[in-house]
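QA checklist item 7 of 12: single-chain prediction sanity check.
[x] sequence parsed
[x] length recorded as 98
[x] structure emitted
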Amino acid sequence: MADYGITGVKYNSIGKYIEWVKVGTFTGSSFGIRENWLRTKVISEFEKGKTFITVLKQGDRLKKGLEVSVITVDGKKYIRTDNDDKASDSLKDIPEFL
């Protein structure tokens, strides 16, 4: 079970890097109040051993999505839900917020 769920992202102006994520505590049966975190906080919490998943809205319910990992490419860290080693962030299927 993950510590946190991510329900939204905000990419930078070129759409390659995530600037903000909408995060809430996740207990498997309930989802806490969502906060906006900088991507650097997600990476910091991940490095402290916290785990993240994506959480998708399906009608009136929330559904567990994919596990989130942090990868390093050319010395820079990225947030991804796939195994690609591309120099970009990618949280598939997570909607962008303004």
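[x] summary fact logged: Helices lie at 39-47.
[ ] second reviewer sign-off
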